[in-house]
Design brief:
Helices cover 25% and strands 24% of the residues. The protein is built from 14 helices and 30 strands. Helix 3 runs parallel beside helix 4.
């Protein structure tokens, strides 16, 4: 219970936009007053004329008027209020209009279609994840693997009667599946309370409330605890940009623009049918900062992913009308400053919590140090990579040779931000088709190319994310209102695709070359990015140690290439450790390529080469087994003469 000087400091920091624990005094809290145990309710509604607390404890009558103190905070104590009872605030707004409103700091809401808050206390949960948290504190996640499985909790799997699984169900089923598939992070679309499933959780009413449709606070705590014991990190989507427009929620809470911008154009978010937070208002900053702190502290989250950052930092987002900022530009200065302040504050408190941003423009540096004028996020979703890659794989292979830059352009800017390569839920809805169904050709060729797409994602610098169902090549688009079509796995190609994804994920986790130097220039070495005729890309991924490197060859055409030559850095023996066209994965190859030995001969910038067969629509990942790491690759004068004479070994044209 806060009192005296401590309470005054809480109010002052709240009104200054500096309070990350406003949930500890706003909302409802158990207290003892004059020997009576009950609950104290606090509400910020500075321009309301009158406020009453109504609920089960007073038959929803106007018997509990709240008092406005000198800090513009409404309070009332009720000894009749009991744990588990429902309540709302009846507000006479600044205009005189009377409306029933939710508690913005409520920890739980009743089951739909009801929308009253529930008197709730955070359980005193005993955690068992000390080993995980200790390892996280000692590790550098930039130099560790991050392979994220993106999940919508309401539709990963459902009960036979169509009802949603809760998080006890997901603890029993999802965590073993994550282990089987070799994912080391799971990211959930928003788990906060939202009234409409069709919003996928992105239009919130309860920024502190665990969604009642998904279970209880304790169930999600147990889930995260079990994930950590299984060495799986947990990330949750969080939406500080906009909120649900419902009249009984945050919208124009006290009759004025309380949480939203006063300027209608800035407040309006027509793309989502929502309202935008006023990110320059200190009390709103404290509200949002406290929401993030609550979720991190209550559930031991490993990361937050911020949706639609562009909406927060650009005034012209979505093409809506806007007034330029004071410098005549389109940058939302309040949003820009808030995100920097938010990341700084959060990182000071929780330096190992990973902050991810979904931001589609290149006009603002999103990741990196604040001193570099960045927003301070750890990772940015690489939307450009995603769009280019998916457009390329939908293209007829006859034309792909002229468009290899769609796959290699991201190599050019990969150091500009710390990237996550997402194949997310946004790409498998609204008529865009599933990932498998985007691929060119018949069903067999679609699976072959999907395997190569995933291999390209796993070997490209950057962390990884794949949306649920895509791991087995789901044919249908994602449907938020039903479970994934697990019956697909009865089909041989789907089953083998799932097995392939699991093996590729395991390879990624085990091969340091694929993640140790994601943010370093020498983590990627290009062998050949210009083989337009055969439409084959080849490159090397390097780890910290000289021996930790992998050679990647992607055949993006429908033609198998025999006796294909590529340059390699060291002479010796190599082994194909992944061939996407193996029969076990759904391909046609029954035997893998035999161990390879280098031959002397110039290829591009290399004077050692390998010759091998590259399957149509296939990817080969090659690892050194016994090579001379002391070898110095020099193009001799004789090589230069041969090159000038046109006799140097090159890729077949």
């Amino acid at each position: 219970m806060l009192a005296g000087t401590e309470l005054l400091k809480a109010y002052q920091s709240f009104s200054a936009g500096e309070n990350g624990h406003a949930f500890k005094f706003f909302g409802v809290h158990k207290e003892i007053r004059n020997g009576h145990e009950g609950y104290l309710f606090r509400l910020w509604a500075p321009h309301a004329q009158k406020v009453w607390l109504v609920g089960d404890f007073n038959d929803w009558q106007d018997t509990l008027p709240m008092q406005l103190d000198e800090h513009d905070i409404w309070t009332v104590f009720s000894p009749e209020a009991k744990l588990g009872q429902l309540y709302k605030y009846k507000i006479q707004q600044s205009t005189g209009r009377v409306v029933y409103k939710i508690d913005p700091y409520a920890l739980r809401f009743e089951d739909r279609p009801g929308d009253a808050a529930v008197i709730t206390e955070v359980p005193a949960y005993k955690w068992h994840d000390g080993l995980w948290r200790g390892r996280q504190k000692r590790s550098n996640y930039f130099e560790r693997p991050m392979n994220i499985y993106e999940v919508h909790a309401g539709s990963w799997k459902r009960h036979a009667d169509g009802s949603m699984e809760n998080f006890d169900d997901l603890t029993k089923e999802l965590i073993p599946y994550l282990k089987k598939m070799h994912y080391n992070y799971v990211e959930f679309m928003p788990l906060m309370e939202h009234p409409l499933d069709a919003s996928w959780g992105y239009q919130l009413i309860g920024y502190f409330a665990f969604c009642s449709s998904y279970g209880t606070i304790e169930q999600f705590q147990r889930f995260v605890d079990a994930c950590h014991q299984a060495n799986i990190g947990v990330i949750v989507d969080w939406v500080p940009g906009h909120f649900c427009i419902n009249d009984d929620a945050l919208a124009y809470f006290d009759g004025t623009a309380t949480y939203e911008y006063a300027d209608h154009d800035r407040a309006s978010n027509p793309e989502w049918g929502a309202l935008n937070f006023d990110l320059g208002k200190p009390e709103v900053q404290s509200f949002l900062l406290s929401s993030a702190f609550y979720w991190i502290e209550t559930f031991h989250l490993d990361g937050l992913r911020i949706d639609a950052v562009s909406n927060m930092i650009y005034l012209d987002y979505g093409g809506k009308p806007y007034q330029p900022n004071k410098y005549g530009g389109v940058q939302n200065l309040e949003g820009w400053h808030f995100l920097r302040k938010f990341n700084k504050t959060l990182k000071l408190a929780y330096p190992k919590v990973i902050m991810l941003a979904e931001e589609s423009s290149a006009g603002t540096k999103v990741t990196g140090m604040l001193e570099e004028n960045a927003l301070g996020f750890d990772y940015k979703w690489n939307m450009g990579w995603m769009n280019d890659a998916l457009n390329f794989f939908q293209m007829d292979p006859l034309f792909r040779g002229d468009h290899l830059d769609m796959l290699t352009f991201s190599w050019m800017y990969r150091m500009s931000e710390n990237f996550i390569l997402p194949l997310s839920h946004d790409e498998v809805v609204h008529g865009k088709k599933s990932l498998m169904n985007k691929m060119w050709g018949d069903r067999y060729r679609q699976f072959a190319q999907l395997r190569t797409l995933y291999a390209y994602q796993m070997t490209h610098p950057g962390k990884k994310l794949l949306f649920m169902g895509s791991e087995w090549g789901q044919y249908l688009e994602w449907r938020y209102y039903e479970g994934l079509p697990w019956e697909d796995l009865a089909d041989e190609l789907n089953h083998k695709m799932q097995y392939f994804t699991a093996q590729l994920n395991a390879l990624y986790l085990n091969e340091r070359a694929l993640w140790e130097k994601d943010q370093q220039e020498d983590g990627l070495e290009v062998i050949d990015a210009n083989n337009y005729a055969q439409t084959i890309l080849s490159f090397i991924r390097h780890g910290k140690k000289k021996r930790d490197f992998l050679i990647v060859v992607l055949n993006l055409s429908s033609i198998e290439q025999k006796d294909f030559a590529i340059g390699v850095p060291y002479p010796g023996q190599y082994q194909v450790i992944l061939n996407t066209e193996m029969q076990a994965f759904g391909g046609t190859w029954t035997k893998n390529i035999a161990p390879l030995t280098t031959k002397t001969g110039v290829y591009k910038n290399y004077d050692q080469r390998l010759e091998l067969t590259v399957p149509a629509f296939g990817t080969l990942i090659i690892k050194p087994t016994k090579v001379n790491l002391r070898y110095k690759n020099h193009l001799t004068l004789e090589h230069k003469k041969l090159k000038k004479a046109g006799k140097v070994m090159q890729a077949k044209q």
